[in-house]
């Protein structure tokens, strides 16, 4: 099912790319074969009539309200230090030592690579009738 979906999407992409190529070639052909368009005469427009601007109304001035004073807060000069509880001690655990493992040794000589091809025994063909 996924292969069908993928091939369907791929065919749509190919179809769109080929159609866009054909459209661009057709547009280029029209641009090259199209006759020149004559220029149109310029039209002069009459000037707009001037109108006086309306007068803007004045904004009335409102009296400023009188706000009550903010309450004052008294901050103490020194704050008491809180006493923190003591932290419990965590017992320390001792782990057993890891077993000593020896690292594998790396061979210093390279094995020889055979230069001849091994031969397979030749089997005779089956007897013919």
From TrEMBL:
This is Protein PELPK2. It comes from the Eukaryota.
């Amino acid at each position: 099912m996924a292969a069908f979906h993928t091939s369907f999407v791929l065919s749509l992409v190919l179809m769109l790319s080929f159609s866009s190529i054909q459209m661009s070639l057709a547009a280029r052909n029209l641009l090259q074969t199209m006759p020149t368009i004559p220029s149109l005469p310029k039209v002069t427009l009459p000037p707009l009539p001037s109108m006086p601007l309306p007068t803007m109304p004045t904004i009335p001035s409102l009296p400023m309200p009188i706000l009550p004073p903010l309450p004052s807060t008294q901050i103490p000069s020194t704050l008491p230090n809180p006493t923190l509880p003591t932290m419990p001690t965590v017992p320390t655990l001792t782990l057993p030592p890891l077993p000593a493992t020896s690292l594998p040794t790396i061979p210093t000589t390279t094995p020889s690579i055979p230069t001849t091809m091994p031969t397979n025994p030749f089997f005779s063909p089956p007897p013919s009738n």
